[in-house]
Specification:
By secondary structure, this protein is mainly alpha-helical. It has one domain. It contains six helices and two strands. A two-stranded antiparallel ribbon has the order 1-2. The chain starts with 9 loop residues before the first helix and ends in a 26-residue tail after the last strand. The mean pLDDT is 82.
């Protein structure tokens, strides 16, 4: 059982996050097509309204909370053998999972801020925001860098969302449920005495 307390390497967490990000984008696309677009048409709302953003936030929170409270693994975490749990090894409870999911979304918002800032040049109507976005981008990059450095120095490799929620991400062994040892085959029994051959 001591194998389960190995902290997850940061590169595995990044790989699982990319996988989960792609799944979340797919869920958002389905939500936009099946709920937001029809709702916007019925209510006459413009694209990108507060209701749409709220629904996408609920989908993102629901995605993480559902998986973390029901096994401690999203699909990306399962692919990379990672599990999120509380410090004592129990699964996250609903309120803790919601807090951690909010922290994850904020953290990834910071991670993606520099990429968003680089796309401002493609939207001439947003050019006036460019100096503010560049400053925010530099600030976000520094916060992310400091959090990664602090995670490397922490024995349990905790990122800000782990500190906030009191959780940790661990690396599971290759086979967390090893099979019971197989019985050796019984030796062949001697021929029966009544057998004439």
């Amino acid at each position: 059982m001591s194998e389960l307390i190995l902290p997850a390497p940061l590169w595995r967490r990044l790989a699982a996050s990319i996988y989960d990000g792609l799944l979340l984008i797919a869920l958002w696309m389905v939500t936009l097509l099946l709920i937001c677009l029809p709702l916007n048409g019925v209510l006459g709302l413009p694209p990108g309204n507060a209701i749409n953003r709220g629904l996408l936030l609920i989908v993102a929170l629901g995605f993480f909370v559902w998986f973390w409270t029901r096994g401690g693994q999203t699909l990306g975490m399962r692919a990379w053998r990672l599990q999120v749990r509380r410090g004592e090894g129990a699964l996250l409870r609903l309120p803790v999972a919601v807090v951690r999911a909010m922290a994850v979304l904020i953290y990834w918002g910071l991670v993606l801020t520099p990429a968003a800032a680089s796309m401002i040049h493609r939207a001439p109507s947003l050019e006036s925001l460019l100096p503010h976005v560049q400053n925010a981008s530099i600030g976000a990059a520094l916060i992310v860098l400091l959090s990664v450095v602090s995670a490397r120095l922490d024995a349990r490799r905790r990122l800000p969302q782990d500190w906030i929620a009191g959780s940790e991400v661990v690396l599971l062994p290759l086979n967390p449920f090893p099979a019971a040892p197989k019985n050796k085959r019984a030796p062949k029994s001697a021929k029966s005495v009544s057998d004439p051959n």
